Amino acid sequence: MYCSKCGTLEDKVIDSRLSKDGRSIRRRRECAGCGQRFTTYEELERADLRVVKRNGSSEPFDLHKLLNGMLKACEKRPVTREMLKKAASEIVHGLEQDFAREISSQIVGGKVMDALRELDGVAYVRYASVYRSFQDIGEFIDEIQLLGRRAKTSALQPELFK
User: What count of other Cβ atoms lies within 10 Å of the Cβ of residue 110?
Assistant: First the structure.
């Protein structure tokens, strides 16, 4: 690993610990040349998942694209970035376990909508409106009514009566 300060390849590991999600290792390192300290993360290399789009083309699965879509849906909502990262990580983990190499974009979108429904109803409707290409206000109303009929299980709003 090159030191970002002096470019030396020699370093020593000062501290190693498991990340919060348990899927990567955080290593604190010190450059042997200049003494600069830096952090590296080590994680399991994932299988090359590919997403098959509606038009039949495919592209490599992109976690950043998934997370950015979720972030846009949750803009100005009381959902933290950490909550979204955790949800995205769970989505990816589930996809890796359930599918070999190729995944339909409809399955990925469905998993994202399920995760957002649990986190925030407004974010769910925002995402659904883009994902399902709502054409008029009636489709918004239908989706909101459908959401209202489901049991309220928001992660942000605990149940008052059990």
Answer: 12
Residue 139 CB burial class (10 angstroms; 0-12, 13-18, ≥19): middle
Please provide the size of the chain in residues: 162
Name the token pair of 59: 């592209």
Whole-structure pTM value: 0.60
pLDDT tens-place string over residues 34-82: 999 999 888 766 667 889 998 999 999 888 999 999 999 999 999 999 9
φ and ψ of 143, to 5 deg: -65, -40
Read off the tokens for 38.
């830096």
Which pLDDT belongs to residue 162?
47
For residue 37, give the amino acid letter: R
Measured distance CA(116)–CA(113) in Å, rounded: 5
Is the confidence at residue 98, as pLDDT, over 60? Answer: yes
SS3 annotation, the chain: CCCCCCCCCCEEEEEEEECCCCCEEEEEEEECCCCCEEEEEEECCCCCCEEECCCCCEEECCHHHHHHHHHHHCCCCCCCHHHHHHHHHHHHHHHHHHCCCEEEHHHHHHHHHHHHHHHCHHHHHHHHHHHCCCCCHHHHHHHHHHHHHCCCCCCCCCCCCC
